[in-house]
Write a structure and sequence with these properties.
This protein has helices spanning about 15-20, 35-40, 75-85; strands at about 1-5, 10-15, 20-25, 45, 55, 70, 90-95, 100-105. The protein is α+β, with helices and mostly antiparallel strands and about 110 residues long.
Length: about 110
């Protein structure tokens, strides 16, 4: 289980099975290049030579297209969520793959 804080500040608990398969993407236009995401989850995030963070594929390939989407491996869910919470640029978006509803990040409800 993970705690989730909605935009209105209320806390609720979200169970992993409620979420289903998750995917993550980064809005490079908002990325500050601090690298916090790569520190929390280096298997999922990496800074490129342009100083911005990008997601990595399941095969560890850096996905350099802006807005590229990568699956969130369940064993790394906490690290990815922490990355989204701690990101100073509020640019990490974690959403359900099934309906693309953001569950963690700046647009989470």
């Amino acid at each position: 289980m993970l705690n989730h804080v909605s935009r209105n500040g209320r806390r609720r608990t979200v169970r992993n099975e409620e979420l289903g398969d998750l995917e993550v993407w980064i809005d490079q236009d908002l990325c500050t290049g601090d690298g916090i995401c790569a520190q929390y989850a280096p298997e999922v995030f990496e800074l490129d030579i342009d100083g911005l963070a990008y997601v990595k594929s399941a095969d560890d390939e850096l996905l350099q297209d802006k807005g590229a989407i990568a699956p969130v491996p369940l064993p790394l869910l906490t690290e990815v969520v922490d990355s989204a919470k701690e990101c100073p640029g509020d640019c990490i978006h974690v959403r359900r793959a099934s309906d693309r509803v953001e569950v963690y990040g700046p647009d989470a409800e």
